[in-house]
Amino acid sequence: MIVIVFGLPGTGKTYFSHRLHLSTGARHLNTDKARDQLDKKGEYDPRIKDLIYRELIKEARLALAQGQDVIIDGTFHKKSRRDMILQLAEDMHQQVFFIEMTAKEESIRKRLSHEREQSEAGFEVYRELEKEPDPFTEEHLTLWSDSGPVDKMITKVKAYIYGHRTDK
Question: Which pTM value belongs to this model?
Fold first, then answer.
């Protein structure tokens, strides 16, 4: 199973994904960690972004081949990167579940005003990415990260996944 936690910077993707990982045991992969491992911090041109997503796909493929479920968090605001995941799911005979993280702008602005361990994205990056998403047409669950406890969101995601799994 592949769970994609996507959304703009500051929406709580990584925090939520980490907590979901702790609750499920699925392998947690993250664009910021991959960027760091590839020594590409501060590099955000489209070629580098594609390299980061290809690296995540490679890691996810290995984990899935070992029988692990995976959680991947990243913006996934470009259709081409979501298509990479859909192709991986088809190749590996896995279901993919998309979970969108969002939050009120004031929450995002506050989160992005502090230095964060992994991400370099500030509010200006949030604004830029907000202007350029490809339409998201895949079925997905939307969570507001600033509207309740993370444990309730995890319960909601598990119910969503269980309700849609074909291998139960």
Answer: 0.85
Give tens-digit pLDDT for 2-13: 999 998 888 889
Phi–psi pair at 72, nearest 5 degrees: -120, 125
In sequence order, the β-bridge partners of residue 5 are 73, 99
Count of domains for the chain:
1
Q: Nearest to residue 75, comparing CAs of 119, 124, 22, 109?
A: 119
pLDDT, tens digit, 9 for 90 and up, residues 61-77: 999 999 999 999 998 98
Q: Which CATH number goes with the domain that contains 11? A: 3.40.50.300
Q: Cα–Cα distance between 141 and 100 in angstroms, integer?
A: 6
> CB count, 10 Å around CB of 56?
23
Could you tell me the residue range of the domain that residue 107 belongs to? Answer: 2-164
Q: What is each CA distance from 99 to 39, 73, 81, 144, 167, in whole angstroms? A: 28, 9, 15, 11, 19
